[in-house]
Every structure is written in structure tokens, then in C-alpha cells.
Amino acid sequence: MTRKFQNIINKGSYLVAIAVILLVWQGVCTYEVVPSFMLPSPVDVWKAFVGDFGLLMMHTKITLIEAGIGLFLGVVLGVVIAVLMDTNQMVYNACYPILVITQTIPTVAIAPLLVLWLGYDMAPKVVLIVIATFFPITIGVLDGLKSTDKDTLNLLRSMGASKVQIFYHLKVKSSLGAFFSSLKISVSYSIIGAVIAEWLGGFNGLGVYMTRVRKSFSYDKMFAVIFLISLISIVLMLLVKEVRKKCMPWEQV
Amino acid sequence: MANLVTKDITKCFDGKTIIEEINIELNDKELVSLIGVSGAGKTTLFNTISGLISPEQGQVLLDGEDITGKTGKVSYMLQKDLLLPFKTIEDNVALPLVLKGTKKKQAREMVRPYLREFGLEGTEKKYPAQLSGGMRQRAALLRTYLCSSGVALLDEPFSALDTITKRSMHKWYLEIMDHIHLSTLFITHDIDEAILLSDRIYLMTGKPGRITKEIAIKTPRPRSEEFLLTEEFLAYKREIIEALKLG
Fold first, then answer.
1. Which of A150, A159, A165, A173 is the best residue to mutate to test the B interface, defined by the most B CB atoms within 10 Å of its own CB?
2. pLDDT tens digit string along B107-126?
3. Domain limits at A30?
4. In CATH, what number does B4-74+148-246 get?
């Protein structure tokens, strides 16, 4: 009985921690330790969220569409590059440094250029998201493909399996775990990427909304949209976790 | 018919000779063991016979056909069960059939009666992680058997198991050996195991590894566990230990 109780407390402790933070935050605002125009209280943020709900959902839809297209293309590109790098050592040697360089360029720095080249519509956003998301996928999948068990590989070879058969029967599923771990990272990158791209130009999307409320000093709305963005990321990551469970039933046993 | 012969096989790595002039013979339905100190090149010999590596010199013949350097001709099982963790037992076992071009569904149908014979009924839809060590090893043996054209190479198949499981696997293996048509070449460190299971035993010693002795176990099969306690058994054991010391 006590152990069960202990268990519930352990599992729910993060809820308690969040509640404490919210209470302290509310207290700081109510007793005006920090002036309210600088830090809105949680209640103000909630009110702003409810008040602008329709508008926020409209922007969310746009951001999600951009992130979805970008992530899809990023994943496809990432997997293709990883497979090519795994099958051909020359491709590996040629691509690896370039891949690393693409990741050392700050996203914020290239976003304005992309807007300049590709305009204010969907295109620059999608390209930015692809750049941000393909890399974790490539590295993860490549690692998964390379770490395929050597003995099992030899066993399949001794059975007379062709390269294609080894890839299909062994490598694909061996690297699935690494793929999903990378996907979890890429999913949150895709949302962040979309928002950053929207800051720099566009007509709709959560990033655009964010820029507007910042310019009108509506910090309650600013906080509301920040929380919404992190909530979306969390939900998407949980979704990846569920898909992983479905795709890898052998992990559940 | 399944008859395997190696002729003067020599294999080197980085200029160092690992095995030299290996001549062994495996007749139809025979079980032949290969005992030797670590590093004598037993696994190298198996890798050569299975076609994973090519020898510098010599030939591997299966029923008279030259299969040197060709994979997929004899089946090979390693110490670890090497079942694919993401495939169910039936799919693991059916894998060699699928690799040879059988449709997945048909291959599953084909392996079903064998699963029963190998004491694996009810595990078809389970994953390897859900099975005990002994059962996994049995599934791996079945897979090896199904991908063979009559000859199987087993590299210490029971050595990763605990003593009690190992004993029951011996008992099971002695029984199943009479039902299935298989010629087996068997690597082991366990002298008792070799005498209990084999028709003949090759001793492999030295650097580079050579076959230094061949012992025929005349006691008729199937042998029971009690055989391990007989004077006859001990005489064989003494002979092997002496020979290994000399090597």
C-alpha cells in the first residue's frame, strides 16, 4: 500500500514541480515583485491563450503544414543519404565533411538568405526545416546501419543471402531503433525551424504571430504562444513514441 | 546423400598460416566432432568450408562438387543463436527458405511441422527474447537444418548454455538426430560432449593447426546419459586427453 503510494508520488512528482513553479510565478506577479508589463502572470497568459484561441489555431495549422512537409522531405533525404553512405565508402568519404559543415551554419543566419532567394511563401520555410531535420536522421540511421551485428551478417551471407536481401531482412530493422531516436529530435527541430523561418518573413504561422505580439508588447500573448509551441513539440514526440511501439513490437516483450 | 570432403586446405592471414593441409571427411548422416585447443583454427576451418572465406590452397567438395568459396551450400550455426530479435520464431526459422525465394506465407506453412518436431509448437508468433536459452538454441538448430542441403557446421552450439540445459539439449539432440537426415560437423571444447554425440572425433592442435588424430567412437547410437559413466567412455576420454597433451 505504502509502496504503491510512493510509486504514484514518484511518477507524479513532475506535476507537483510544475504546480510549484506556477504558484511561485503567480505569487511574484500578484505581489508585483516584477512589474506586470515585463512578466505576465500565468492567469494572464491563460486568458490571452483563450482569448486568441481561434487565431492561434489558424497559425498553428500553417506552421504544422510547413513542419510536416519539411520533416517528411528531411526524413526522406536523411534516410537516402544514410543508405548511400552505408553502401558506398566513397560517398561516405565525400559527404561526411559537407554534412557536418551544413550543421555548423546557424539556422538563424541562413533564414534571411532563404527568404531573399525563395520569397515569403512556403518554400524558404520548408527548405530551412529540411536542413534542420535531415542531419539527425542521417547520423542516426547511418549509425544503425553500421552497427548491424557482424556475426548475424556472416550467418546470412553463409545462407547465400544477396546484398539486397541482407539490407531488407537485417539492416532495415536493425536500424529502426536509431531511426526513431533521431526522429524524436527531428520532430522538435521541425517546429522550431518553422517558427524561426516565419520570424523572418511570411504572412501566417506561429512565428509570424509571435513577431506581431512582440512588436505590440503583448507579453501575455507571447508567453501563450511559447507554451503552445512547446506543447505541440511534446505531443509530436509522444506521437513518435507511439508509432515506434507500433513499428517495433519486439521491443515490448 | 551428403558427403563432405576437404582436401589439403591451407589458410593464411597476414602471411601467417592458421591452418595447414586439413583433410577431413564427413559421411552421410554422420556426426563428426572437431576438438582442439583455442587458436588451433577450428573456426577458420568452418569459415572456409561455409564459403565465407577462400583458402590459399585446397578444395572443399560436397558430393563431389567443388564448393570452395561458395556460400549457401552448407549451413552454419555459431555459438550464439543469432536469431533476429525483430522476427518471430516462425519467421526466423523460415528465413533460409525465404532467402532462397519461397513466398513468406508458404515458407511459414512449410516450417510448421518442423517446429512441432523440434518441440517449438506454440512459439511461432513469439519473439526470441521471450524464449529460454535452450529453446532459442533449438530454433537456431532448426533454422540451420532447414537451410542445409544435408550438411551442417555447428560451432560450439551448446557452449553458451548452463550445464543442466546443456544436458537436456544433448538428450534431445541424440533423439532428434535419428529422425532428421543430416550430416554434422561439430566444434566443441567439451570432451564429454564430443564422445557422447560423435561417430568420429578429429583432434586439431598446433600452430598452424593440423589434424593430429582421428578417433572413432564405436559404441552404437543412440547413446544414453549412462554411457558417460562407463569404463568404455573413460578409455576414450583418456585417449583424447593424452593426445591433446602431446599436441
1. A159
2. 888 888 888 888 888 888 89
3. 1-39
4. 3.40.50.300
